[in-house]
């Protein structure tokens, strides 16, 4: 799903979600993710049945705010009771590696960890 126009009700469907986002400006979430992020902050839904992963897009040349938008999502989801699967990925555009290249490996690892968790809870 694109984040454009989403609100916190998207998490009413219990399940697993991957948040793929960048940082905008001085460490903010990008415009297309703002409505979702602000709705999570305002409504503060119980996300205890939600599992998620975060694939962050950033550029280390902006050291003070590197991958801060993805971190904001990670923090709010955790605050609301969601469980992160795996580590938050911090792609660095200045590395010269395309995000698609690291996303494939990260997603495969994330799905494996998700499946391990599913087997453990049965």
Total DSSP helices: 3
CATH architecture classification:
3-Layer(aba) Sandwich
What does the largest sheet look like? 4 strands, parallel
Rg over C-alpha atoms, rounded to the nearest angstrom: 14 Å
- What is the domain total for the residues? 1
- Structural class of the helices, strands and pairings? alpha/beta
CATH class: Alpha Beta
Low-confidence stretches: none
Q: Care to count the β-strands?
A: 4
Shape summary? globular
CATH superfamily: Flavodoxin domain
Mean pLDDT, to the nearest integer, reads 92
Share in helix: 25-40%
- Report strand %: 15-25%
Termini separation: 28 Å
Oligomer: single chain
CATH topology: Rossmann fold
Structure description:
With 122 residues, the protein is an alpha/beta fold. It has a single domain, classed as 3-Layer(aba) Sandwich (Rossmann fold), CATH 3.40.50.360. It is built from 3 helices and 4 strands, in the order E-H-E-H-E-E-H. Strands 1, 2, 3 and 4 form a 4-stranded parallel beta sheet that branches. Strand 2, helix 2 and strand 3 form a beta-alpha-beta unit. The protein is globular, with a radius of gyration of 14 Å. The two termini are 28 Å apart. The mean pLDDT is 92.
Write the layout of secondary structure elements.
Blueprint: E1 16-22, H1 31-43, E2 51-58, H2 68-79, E3 83-84, E4 89-92, H3 99-120
Parallel strand pairs: 1-2, 2-3, 2-4
Note the main attributes of this structure.
globular; Rossmann fold; 3 helices; 122 residues; alpha/beta; 4-stranded parallel beta sheet
């Amino acid at each position: 799903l694109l984040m454009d126009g989403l609100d916190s009700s998207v998490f009413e469907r219990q399940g697993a979600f991957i948040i793929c986002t960048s940082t905008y400006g001085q460490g903010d979430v990008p415009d297309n993710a703002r409505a979702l992020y602000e709705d999570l902050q305002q409504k503060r839904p119980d996300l205890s049945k939600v599992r998620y992963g975060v694939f962050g897009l950033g550029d280390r040349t902006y050291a003070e705010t590197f991958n801060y938008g993805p971190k904001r999502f990670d923090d709010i989801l955790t605050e609301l009771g969601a469980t992160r699967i795996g580590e938050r990925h911090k792609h660095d555009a200045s590395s010269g590696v395309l995000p698609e290249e690291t996303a494939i490996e990260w997603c495969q690892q994330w799905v494996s960890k998700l499946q391990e968790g599913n087997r453990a809870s049965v």
